[in-house]
Amino acid sequence: AQKITQTQPGMFVQEKEAVTLDCTYDTSDQSYGLFWYKQPSSGEMIFLIYQGSYDEQNATEGRYSLNFQKARKSANLVISASQLGDSAMYFCAMSETLSGGYQKVTFGTGTKLQVIP
Amino acid sequence: NAGVTQTPKFRVLKTGQSMTLLCAQDMNHEYMYWYRQDPGMGLRLIHYSVGEGTTAKGEVPDGYNVSRLKKQNFLLGLESAAPSQTSVYFCASQQGYEQYFGPGTRLTVT
């Protein structure tokens, strides 16, 4: 069974500094996807970044990068140059595509990031 | 494009009452999902649908029913609400590897 672990319930970062949010996963599948979502206080789930298990290069999207270490089964999110608007809950998730195209997604418990001015 | 919309945004029910949450998407996606989010936990899958007329159980289906009569709509029903169903409910549709989420419905059962 898939499992996602986020060990940091909460983190603080100074504005303009970089921060790394940890995520480890467990799966016996060879093909899977890893995601990060942002959930601000307004409640919506915002897709940030995706990494496929066969992708050799780390995914990047603007200030977000996913540090994918397959052997360690980790998929940490790095946010560079933090902004006040980055204060939110961040969820790591893993997907497994089953027969028929259904995507089973398992979410971690989240890390609450607070950016300090 | 409105994306994924959910109705209502907030609702308070008394124990034993019934209600239906509506999810609508205008992106012509085949796959749709219902999740619930509880404090200190990530999202957990309730039910999902791989196309019009088909539904299946997810991780926590007890106490819920769903229907997908039209491709664009995915309904989540609570026949007899219980306080344990107090939660925030998210609907999502899928294109490729990405799931697109609705804004959520905050349900309180007293």
Pick out its properties.
heterodimer; A: 117 residues; mainly beta; six-stranded mixed beta sheet; four-stranded antiparallel beta sheet; 0% helix; globular; B: 110 residues; seven-stranded mixed beta sheet
Structure description:
Chain A is mainly β. Chain A is 0% helix and 54% strand. In chain A, the strands form 3 sheets. In chain A, strands 2, 5, 6, 10, 11 and 12 form a 6-stranded mixed sheet that branches. In chain A, strands 3-9-8-7 form a 4-stranded antiparallel sheet, with no helix packed on it. In chain A, strand 8 and strand 9 (74-79) form a beta hairpin. The radius of gyration of chain A is 14 Å and the shape is globular. The model of chain A has no long low-confidence stretch (mean pLDDT 94). In chain B, a hairpin with a 5-residue loop joins strand 7 (65-67) and strand 8. In chain B, the strands form 2 sheets. In chain B, strands 2, 4, 5, 6, 9, 10 and 11 form a 7-stranded mixed sheet that branches. A 4-stranded antiparallel sheet of chain B has the order 1-3-8-7, with no helix packed on it. In chain B, 0% of the residues lie in helices and 56% in strands. The mean pLDDT of chain B is 94. Chain B is built from no helices and 11 strands. Chain B is mostly beta strands. Chain B has strands at residues 4-7, 10-13, 19-25, 31-37, 43-51, 54-57, 65-67, 73-78, 87-95, 98-101, 105-109. Classes of the chains: A mainly beta (117), B mainly beta (110). The interface between A and B is medium-sized, with 23 and 24 residues.
Summed over residues and divided by their number, the pLDDT of chain A gives a mean of 94
Name the poorly predicted regions of chain A: none
Largest sheet of chain B: 7 strands, mixed
Helix content of chain A: under 10%
- How many strands of chain B? 11
Strand content of chain B: over 45%
- Please mark out the parts of chain B with pLDDT under 50 across 5 or more consecutive residues, or reply none: none
Number of helices of chain B: 0
Structure class of chain A: mainly beta
Order of helices and strands of chain A: EEEEEEEEEEEE
Give me the count of strands of chain A: 12
Q: Assign an overall shape of chain B.
A: globular
- So what's the oligomer here? heterodimer
- The whole-angstrom Rg of chain A is 14 Å
**Count of individual helical segments of chain A:** 0
Largest sheet of chain A, in brief, is: 6 strands, mixed
